[in-house]
Request: fold
Amino acid sequence: MTKSKCVLILLLLGSLGVSVSAQTGSVQSLAEAVDRHYNALQSLQAKFVETYRGSGIQREESGTLWLKKPGKMRWDYTSPRQKLFVSDGKTAWFYVPGEARVQRAPVKKMDDLRSPLRYLLGKTKLQKELAGLSLAPDITPTTPGDVVLRGVPRHSRDQISQVLLEITPAHQISSLRLDQTDGSTTEFRFTEQKENVAVADSSFQFSPPAGAEVIDAEDLGN
Reply:
């Protein structure tokens, strides 16, 4: 994960039973419904696909994501190679099995694309995090019936030109795309979302392998 990709990602996933369309409610009411649902969750599990496009290349990775209050997150990358990004809410670690080094960063100082997801299961408000939040009728959703919202992260305007969130009729955010000022894009797509799953706190703890060099960094991964 390069420094240019370190941005605010705000994902607030799902509120059941309310139709999502321009005709059934305002952007404000939609955002508030998403906020209420996810602020009430205790944990979340989902499959993810992360796609980067830029400088003439495209890179796709996938795996499983777990989130748990307060501020815990675990990304298990399984394709095309194994990688682990894990945080207990205070310290984040990035490790590629078989390598002789481990990267470490304090969560509060970390500048990484994935790190703000720890606020997903908290008390974040979508409209406070994304300036100019609005419908994006010019963007075709991946799945018919979904709605796309756009906004600009208030704390990363120098890096991100816009954020696009695709929301399902169940108020789940099925994808989030970041259009960066350098012309590149990073997109996360989420499937098989499971709410309030049982996951032990130990899943968010990490001990470096014996002999591995621990490197302190702000931007974890590559």
